[in-house]
Amino acid sequence: MLQAEAFMKEALREAERDENEVPVGAVVVCGGEIIARAHNERESAHPFAHAEMLAMERACQVLGNRRLHGCTLYVTLEPCPMCAGALMMAEIDACVFGAYDPRQGCCGSVYTLPQDPAFFHRVRCAGGVMENECRSLLRRFFTDRRPSPTV
């Protein structure tokens, strides 16, 4: 678990890189080394620029392959349906996430897409690694941006 926490700390650092983006960070680990990292770039780039998508795309470039066999994605927030589908399409081995997303999470909360037997490739998923730290970062971000109620 200590190794998972070390990689999640790197994902958290990545999440904090842009104060104008929802603070989600991701790293892809292969052979015990981080080979790619990313943070959300939805506001500055395009709506599909989720941290997970960007990190996996960069990892594919590093490996020179569309398949991420032998790799694990560490991400601060449970992947959404798009990202959970991308986990399977990239054939990554595993996904470890911090905070659960009860509204859109598709690696255990709302649905468990990467384990659905209807699909060819399945991805092992584990959540709750440094959950409090990951959730706290998100909570601060949204608290700072929402108007306080008037009394």
Helical amount: 25-40%
Q: Would you identify the regions where 5 or more consecutive residues have pLDDT less than 50? A: none
The ordered H/E elements are: HEEHEHEEH
- Based on Cα principal axes, name the global outline: globular
Largest sheet: 5 strands, mixed
Lateral strand order in the biggest sheet = 2-1-3-4-5
Average of pLDDT: 94
The class by helix and strand makeup works out as: alpha/beta
Report the end-to-end length measured between terminal Cα atoms: 46 Å
Share of β-strand residues = 15-25%
Q: C-alpha Rg, in Å?
A: 15 Å
Please give the number of β-strands: 5
Number of helices: 4
How are the secondary structure elements laid out?
Layout: H1 2-15, E1 25-30, E2 33-39, H2 51-63, E3 71-77, H3 81-89, E4 94-99, E5 124-126, H4 131-145
Parallel strand pairs: 3-4, 4-5
Antiparallel strand pairs: 1-2, 1-3
Gist?
With 151 residues, this protein is of the alpha/beta class. Helix content is 34%, strand content 19%.
Write up what this structure looks like.
With 151 residues, this protein is of the alpha/beta class. Helices cover 34% and strands 19% of the residues. It is built from 4 helices and 5 strands. A 5-stranded mixed beta sheet has the order 2-1-3-4-5. The chain is globular.
